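TASK: fixed-backbone design
INPUT:
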């Protein structure tokens, strides 16, 4: 249960940071930097207990790679989504709803953007946090948080920059994603995580 609670806490603060910076329209580069750092520090805080996934797509990738027991996969995802949901309601209490309704995403570009950067995120997690060659390193949190920050800068305006099914659900509750379009994030993000696991297992043959 300790692992699951850590996944709840980490996902909660990730989504809380997203809502509290994006909804008030924090100036310039603040949201992507804050979001990337929030993920990094939560990974450093909880990584030694749960692995610091805070993302169902990452949990899927880690499970397929063999770094997360199958028995933990579903509970991890459940607690991640719960953390995102509770954070979304906390954001609505702290800063209210967005002033404007969520825009309509262009399905093709949004799907590709979510797929590519979820792949990149899961790829970095698998290589920085689970590969034997990088065991016990001190950079994994910054590498993972930095990937999310880069993705937010690069394609946040195209897809919303979730790269995380739990974040997508939280963003929908907060009013940042249209309910009818959350499937884009869910499908693309899980697909990105799965493909990253296949790529890792294919290219890292000696890292079983």
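OUTPUT:
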């Amino acid at each position: 249960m300790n692992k699951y609670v850590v996944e709840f806490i980490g996902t909660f603060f990730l989504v809380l940071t997203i809502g509290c910076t994006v909804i008030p329209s924090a100036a310039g580069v603040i949201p992507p930097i804050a979001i990337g750092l929030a993920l990094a520090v939560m990974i450093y805080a909880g990584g030694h207990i749960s692995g610091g996934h805070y993302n169902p797509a990452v949990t899927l990738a880690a499970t397929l790679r063999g770094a997360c027991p199958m028995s933990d996969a579903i509970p991890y995802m459940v607690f991640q989504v719960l953390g995102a949901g509770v954070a979304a309601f906390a954001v609505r209490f702290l800063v209210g709803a967005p002033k404007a309704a969520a825009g309509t995403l262009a399905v093709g570009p949004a799907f590709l953007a979510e797929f590519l950067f979820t792949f990149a995120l899961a790829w970095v997690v698998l290589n920085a946090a689970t590969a034997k060659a990088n065991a016990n390193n001190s950079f994994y949190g910054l590498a993972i948080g930095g990937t999310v920050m880069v993705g937010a800068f690069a394609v946040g305006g195209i897809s919303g920059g979730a790269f995380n099914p739990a974040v997508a659900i939280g963003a929908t509750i907060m009013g940042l994603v249209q309910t009818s379009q959350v499937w884009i994030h869910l499908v693309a993000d899980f697909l990105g995580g799965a493909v990253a696991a296949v790529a890792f297992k294919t290219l890292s043959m000696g890292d079983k």
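COMMENT: The chain has a mean pLDDT of 95.
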